[in-house]
Input
Amino acid sequence: MKKIVCFLLVVCILTFSIIGMTACSSKKNVVRLNEVCHSVFYAPMYVAMNNGYFYDEGLTIELTNGGGADKTMSAMLANEADIGFCGPEAGVYVKAQGSANHPLVIGQLTKKDGSFLIGRVPEENFSWSDLEGKEIIGGRKGGMPAMTLEYALKQNNLIAGENVTINYDVQFNLITAAFEGGTGDYCTMFEPGASDYQAKGKGYIIASVGKEAGDVPYTSFMATKKYLEENSVNAEKFMRAIIKGIDYVQNHTDEEVATALVSNFPTTEMAMLINSVKNYRAIGAFVTDPAMTKESYEHMQDILIASGTLETKVNYEDMIDNSIIEKIKADK
Output
């Protein structure tokens, strides 16, 4: 519980600092979207932007990068963002503390951990047991990247703090720089960073954390109850565009999807974008249906409890609102 309190303390500090600087958007058809980080992992969302699906719904998306789930949550609670895109665990932490205006999950985008284990040398015959006694830069304690890494390690009898070390002290968006600077034996990276890092000969993709950890509701779209009550039409339009993006990714080639992502990753070579899409397809990262199931939600909470960041489960019905998705399906 202490970890949840610390998480919420960070959220509150960031929230009050933001309140002093921000004002509520008065633009009726604008949706302020805050993403936890920037990655090909979120391809369906970027496809929805670049293929005009939001435009077709009459929406303008103002995209900002939170640089961490705690910061994305702060942006929502401070009314700096209308919809937050991050791990649903961030919302669970807020609800667990009794917040009346806690965020609700209105849709899921990915169902695997999107990070890849990066080593300093190639390891063609890699086994997870090889990580015994090693240090891995794994992200913030209590964040989904760190917790799914812990879960993957536990499946191989590796326990953080006992026979393997996870470095939780490096900010998510500084992991690559820290690893390149000599910290740790391994680290985790998302795409296209992982493929680009390997192409430059700085490190090597060793394994997929997501493949080892299995299905888990990893990133989702969330909004506060207040926002959903006052902006139900925009929320529905938003999710309708997202579903179109999901369908596009499912029904087009790696090359076609990568081409649709170019404007979001202007400094990344096309070959790296294609490889990134291919890597995520290989592990089944993208959802085909954005409605979060109770089974996957409970599995996520099992991971939170196992990591020590959550003591008591939060009811599925209190956190997940699939009504928008169900309405969209019914209207088809």
